Amino acid sequence: MRVLLVEDSKILLRTVRRALRHAGFAVDTAADGEEGLVAAEANDYDVFVLDIMLPKLDGLSLLRQLRAAGNTTHVLLLTARDTVADRVQGLRQGADDYLVKPFALAELIERVRVLCRRAYGNKSGPLCIGSLELDLSARRLRRDGADVDLTAREWRLLEYLVLRRGQVVPRSEIEEHIYDELVEPMSNVVDTAVYNLRRKVGANFIQTRRGLGYVLEVQ
Hints:
This protein is α/β, with parallel strands linked by helices. 41% of the residues lie in helices and 21% in strands. It has helices at residues 10-22, 33-42, 59-68, 84-92, 105-119, 152-163, 171-178, 189-201; strands at 2-6, 26-30, 47-51, 74-79, 97-100, 126-129, 132-135, 140-143, 146-147, 206-209, 213-216. It has a five-stranded parallel beta sheet, with helices on both faces. A hairpin with a 2-residue loop joins strand 8 (140-143) and strand 9 (146-147). The chain is elongated. The chain starts with a strand and ends with a strand. The mean pLDDT is 85.
């Protein structure tokens, strides 16, 4: 899943970015509201994490502009304001969730995961796909009853294919959603990740639709 983090505190931005990437998210960052708006309009994200008190363009104004333009990406607001009125204002502007500073990184990560699943109409809980048992919340995968270890990149890919299971997902869309700006254009990261994931979950689960993309299905 790909996240846009807009935060003007350099320390907090680095900390949250590192935590999200460690948890398996692709993360792009912006240090002010105007930069965040440009990134949000230029790329396809699964979740926006927005600080409210931002330079140049505050988080609520940024949120209003995104919603006015028809952008429906789920938004988690970060703020030091903790009154009921502040929370209500943020939700009325179109936010989906609200987290008050200081916060626990584990809670932020889980809230982002919930918003990602909500974006694709999926709820928490284990899934069974053929011989695979998958718990997205716990990030646990079992195949034929045995635990399967995945890298962070493999988890990102598997999670996205599971959320889109039964649908053909173009290679460009996979690259857009599970990799951040650090990945070089025209690289073979998607092909490599699919190859490695197939070795672990079974080649029959991830099918190639030549010229179209990949689909997760049970034969």
